[in-house]
Amino acid sequence: MSWFRKRVWLYAVLLGLFTWWSMGKTEFEVSSFQEFSNAYSFIHDRFLPASWEILPTLIDPILVTLAVAFLGTFIALLIALPLSFAAAKNTAGNRLFYYFNRFFLSVLRSVPEIVFGLIFVVVLGLGPFPAVMAILLHNIGVLGKLISELIEAADAGPQEAMQSVGAGRRIGNLFSILPQIWPNVLSHYFYRFEVAIRTSLILGFIGGGGIGQKLFNDFNSFNYTAVTVEVLLIMLLVIIVDLFGAFVRKRVI
Amino acid sequence: MIEFQDVTVYYPKSNEPALSHINLTFQQGEFVCVLGPSGAGKSTMIRTVNALQPVTAGNIFIDGQDLDNWTSLEKRQWRSRTGMIFQHFHLIPRLSVEQNVLTGLFGYKHPMAAFAGVFSQSEKKKARSILQQVGLGEMAERRVEWLSGGQKQRVGVARALMQEPDVFLGDEPVASLDPGTAQSIFALLKDVHVRNDLTTIINVHDVALARSFATRIVGLSHGKVIFDGKPDELTESGLEHIYGTVLQA
To answer: Which stretches make up the ABC transporter domain (chain B) (predicted)?
Structure first.
């Protein structure tokens, strides 16, 4: 006798087959693991010692990266909040309106930031503005979906109470749901902010400015000791944003 | 005066009516307790009074006017004059006691003023005075999550009082509370009822509470009125008639 049902064994076999197929498709070779020791010598020989003297020149690019990530995600949150009420089953009011908004959010979410970035760099020119727009549009889709799911999972009791005092539907929904979901909205926001910092690096590779562009240029010109400083600075920024998010969330709860 | 005329309610995808051919009249000043087992239609009946639940057939008249003919705005205006309290309180978490009480004014406020949380000094003073009345004068600033069940229900009563209601509805308001707290909440409801000359209709499972506080008892079973009379007219056999299947179980 086993704790697991027969169906679980079947799923395990299917999962094993899919893993094996994926390894073939990605040329995943266990024997290649021994090559990783080269990575250590590569980093040790080329990336160290770090060129700390370039630190002052990185202040402005890292602030640009921070601004791109913040502005893109913050404006996305402002747009996604009302949109998510229109994309939640329990607050949309009209089924057709609900499906339309869901579809709209899915479309925005399905286009990666890099694709938006490539389009906007051509349309708007090089610099951080196209990166802001790329992060903004993608994050409306992501935050809109996440917040609409929080709205759908909110306790319906306060909504009924607001209906029973004669409140209008929109105000009633807003007041009964937003206080319930607010800490999780902030949690999602700060996570997306953190992701946006990493994304803005990639967007820097295609001309979106910030420290990403600097990192890309230094990597291409084999200036690896500068790359070390840039990577460490990015890691520091991500950690600061994470800590700040945790602090804000704690204050709000 | 609230008058039910042959009211029937079916829920979607249900062949059994939640309410079946109800004929009742509630006069101004009555304190009515509705008894009945779970699924008897008590909550449905309460919700038809303030138009949260539409009726399938029949009519409900409020002071002689057919509720069915009212526009959605008129129904909202009627709800703003109908205080309602719930078993699970339905308070808004993360807001303070006072803020929860002030939401009772949302039926009267302009949406933008409600959104911005703009309340006049007199409205805030009124909220504080109601909180004193329900025994929570010292807790206005406290967040509602940190209150006990009885205190939460007092906030629910205060929110309903903030509406200056003509009618007070209670959907099992003491079902989640211990007997002592339930007794004190009922005493508060009776006090509020007398002071404000309300029409009060409350669903309750506790027969002793209904007998001590109600001026009239309505017994429901399978969506039908089984008993309608004064508390002292409700005999043991009458109770068994209402709760028959439950008692046998």
So the answer is: 2-247
